[in-house]
Amino acid sequence: MQYRKDIDGLRAVAVLPVVAFHAGFNQLPGGFVGVDVFFVISGYLITGNIFAELSRGDFSLLRFYERRVRRIAPALLAVLVAATALAYFTLLPGEMLEYARSLIAAVFSASNVFFWTQAGYFDSDSSTKLLLHTWSLSVEEQFYIVFPLLLSFLLRVFPTRLKPIIWGLMAASFASAVASVALAPSAAFYLPHNRAWELMIGSVLALGMVPKIRGAWLREAAALSGLAMIGAAVLFYREQMPFPGAAALLPCLGAALVIAAGETGPTLMGRLLSWRPVVFIGLISYSLYLWHWPVMVGAQMNSFLFGGAPAMAIKIGTVLVSLVLATISWWLIERPFRVGPLKLPRKALFQAAGAAAAVLVAVGVAGQVDHGLSFRYSPRVQQIADLLTDKSHRQMREGTCFLPSGSTVDDFDMACVRQDPRRRDYLLIGDSHAAHLWYGLAKAMPGVNVMQATASGCKPTLTHPGSAEERCVALMDRMFDTYLPAHKVDTVVLAARWKREDLPRLEATLTRLRGQGLDVIVFGPIIEYRSPLPRLLAVSDRLHDPDFVDEQRIDVSGVDREIGKLARKKGARYVSLASAMCPAGHCLEIDPKGYPVQFDYGHLTGSGSEILARRVIARDPTLSQGPIAAAPVTASAKGA
């Protein structure tokens, strides 16, 4: 297949939004779609080369895999070595254990399957997953393993049925992806059969299965439309939206249009993409993708090293460091192993790659045998750090009374809102920041039946932003529009990870609830940290710096005051969790057994929830008693 500069330029269009998105530039909220553009490009180029060789009758599977190893292995192995060194010096034992497993998965091109098995709302923080980005490389490698064999078989056995079979397989993959987005979002994102259709869009172009774009004006329109489609996805897509599924069509078809437009002649967009600086970014795009994520994760894990540096400076710095490393990697690793002095004969290449892979696997095995190379830390640090991966400390009733991402409202167990005629009934509604309060409130208020209706990322309001998931809207509608009008509840408790933008929706919700005569308690935002509290405490202990944790605390006082002012204005009772956690400026961090009271950036452990709830009730005993006088309740008689 003839080299096209504009395709390297398209690679730049794909990689730069991904890097910007991961760096935290909110101006490109849909930058993650660059990976999907990469899939289309890869499918086009790989299929084109395979088909050309098959047509000439000189296709060699061994030679194909040799090219893939030359292209992929050197830079990947270098990044794995660097990431492993970074992990050794920065990751805590539990994190290192997970890293060791992910390292083995990356070596065997199974990262996507590994991270799929790890996916979950309270999965370990992605800010410590140094190899998370290798999932997309694994998807491509799995495609490379299967598709050449499939194409060779079809051309030999069913040459006249090639097109309908390829179209059928692509349609089946797309249908699976659309269904999985609704039923199993993690599977839709990570698994190859749900991503294959994106690579196959490039394949059908390379196989000539779509009409060529003839005519200069049509080519110009197609190229411009394609870039506009990619740009629209980058600018307007949101991380919270259901993806990939049908939503991935926009950037994938956009990439296909740009590629197709350049097949039959030059275009203005093609010339722009062929501009030398853009092409250069495309040439280093593989190395840039490989290096940028470990750089950004490393910067986030070690943010304390930057002191009071502005967040924007850190973002720009990580991007620049990534570009420098990518350029060095391309010049000194990628090119020499492909076309330069380090280009090894096939046998030596496979032996060298195999030996390097074996060493990395051995490191991964050692990391598991020694429980994350725990000898690096004191027993005290190990105890603190264990909370990062020990889920027994979490008391939220996940999967029944708390719906995580990927669930539906049908998964909600109505027993979670069953009333008790012998006790007062409080209905706790909200997101995970409401769910983590349930355990403590139930312990601290034995005379109260604390019912729970919570879902991840779901604010307890009547209306929701456009990015809200269907299960969130459905659960809140069920509680506010169906359950509360039909049941006499003594008190409604609203809690969430409140932000300023929630104020108008919360005000409308309080107006309605108080107008219905309902007693309402609003819990304010909880203390949060820039990194998981167990990690911060462990680092503090390791650095012998008692002020370190305080320096990493996020100020929520402004939102706390605004939410409190609104709640009191609407006649609701307000609980400042921030004040309860940090009386007189001394914040609750450790429980009596020496464990952190929060297992990540802000979610409470069971112990932390109970301690905080008892503090809250001790400060205001009326919270577990009668409601504020209000208008007559219009709901029906109390019942189950």
From TrEMBL:
GO cellular component, one term: plasma membrane
Domain SGNH: 412-616
Ranges that cross the membrane: 7-25, 31-52, 72-91, 143-159, 165-191, 217-237, 243-261, 273-292, 312-333, 348-369
Record bears the keyword Mitochondrion: no
Localization (cell): Cell membrane
GO molecular function: acyltransferase activity, transferring groups other than amino-acyl groups; hydrolase activity, acting on ester bonds
Residues in the signal sequence: none
InterPro entries: Acyl_transf_3_dom, Acyltransferase_3, SGNH, SGNH_hydro_sf
Protein's GO biological process: lipopolysaccharide biosynthetic process
Membrane-topology annotation of the record: Multi-pass membrane protein
Matches recorded under PANTHER family: ACETYLTRANSFERASE, ACYL_TRANSF_3 DOMAIN-CONTAINING PROTEIN
Protein name: Acyltransferase
The species this protein was found in: Caulobacter radicis
